[in-house]
UniProtKB/TrEMBL annotation:
The keyword Transcription regulation applies. InterPro entries: RNA_pol_sigma-70-like, RNA_pol_sigma-70_dom, RNA_pol_sigma70_bacteroid, RNA_pol_sigma70_r2, RNA_pol_sigma70_r4_t2, RNA_pol_sigma_r2, RNA_pol_sigma_r3/r4-like, WH-like_DNA-bd_sf. It comes from Flavivirga spongiicola. Transmembrane segments: none annotated. Residues 27-94 form the RNA polymerase sigma-70 region domain. Residues 124-174 form the RNA polymerase sigma factor 70 region 4 type domain. This is RNA polymerase sigma-70 factor. Belongs to the sigma-70 factor family. ECF subfamily. It comes from the Bacteria.
C-alpha cells in the first residue's frame, strides 16, 4: 500500500508542489479513470476524453508550483479538464463555422459562375433562333412557346403536318450546329424546347 493513501489532500499537494513524481503518479492512478469517465459524459468520445485528461495532468504538473495547499487536487483536475473540453468545443465551432462560411461562399461563387454561363448560352440560343428563316422560326415558336401540336400548327398555317415536322427538324439542326462545343448544353436546350 502506498504511503500516499494515508495523506491528506494538503500533504499530497505539497509533495507535488515539490516535484514528487511518485506523489504525482499516485494522483494520476487515483483520478485518471474517473476523470475520463466524467469528460466522456460530455464528449461521447473516449479517445478525445483520454487526450483531454492527459493534457489536464500535464497542465497540473507544469503549474504545480501554483497549486493552493487548501485546494483539492481532484477538484483542480476536474476544473482543468472541463475547461479544456470547453476550449476545444469553442475552437471546433469556430473552425466549423469558418468552414461553413467558406463552403457557402464557394457555393455562391459557383452559382454566380453557372448563372453567367447559362445567360451567355441562352443569349446565344436566342440569336440562333432569331436567325432562323421566318416560317421556321414561327413554327418553332408555335410548337415550343405556345405548345401547339404539329397538326394544330399545320391547320393554323394551312400547311401539312409533314412540313411542320421538317421545319422543326431544320430549326434543331441549326441549333445543334451552333452548340457543337457543348454536348451537355444541347441536352439542356432539348429540355427547354421540349423537342418531340
Amino acid at each position: 500500500m502506498s504511503i500516499y493513501t494515508s495523506w491528506s489532500h494538503k500533504e499530497l499537494v505539497m509533495a507535488i508542489q515539490q516535484g514528487d513524481k511518485v506523489a504525482f503518479k499516485f494522483l494520476f492512478e487515483q483520478y485518471y479513470g474517473p476523470l475520463v469517465g466524467y469528460i466522456s459524459t460530455y464528449t461521447q468520445d473516449k479517445q478525445l476524453s483520454e487526450d483531454i485528461v492527459q493534457h489536464s495532468f500535464i497542465t497540473l504538473w507544469q503549474k504545480r508550483s501554483r497549486l493552493s495547499n487548501e485546494a483539492s487536487p481532484k477538484n483542480y483536475l476536474y476544473t482543468i479538464a472541463y475547461n479544456r473540453y470547453i476550449d476545444l468545443l469553442r475552437k471546433e465551432k469556430r473552425v466549423g463555422g469558418l468552414l461553413e462560411d467558406l463552403r457557402m461562399e464557394n457555393l455562391r461563387n459557383r452559382i454566380e459562375e453557372d448563372r453567367e454561363f447559362l445567360e451567355k448560352r441562352l443569349f446565344k440560343l436566342k440569336k440562333i433562333i432569331e436567325g432562323l428563316p421566318p416560317r421556321c422560326k414561327e413554327i418553332l415558336y408555335l410548337s415550343r412557346q405556345r405548345g401547339l401540336e404539329y397538326t394544330e400548327i399545320a391547320e393554323k398555317l394551312k400547311i401539312s403536318p409533314k412540313t411542320v415536322e421538317e421545319q422543326i427538324r431544320i430549326a434543331f439542326k441549326k441549333i445543334r450546329k451552333g452548340f457543337e462545343d457543348g454536348h451537355s448544353f444541347l441536352i439542356f436546350i432539348r429540355k427547354i424546347l421540349n423537342h418531340r
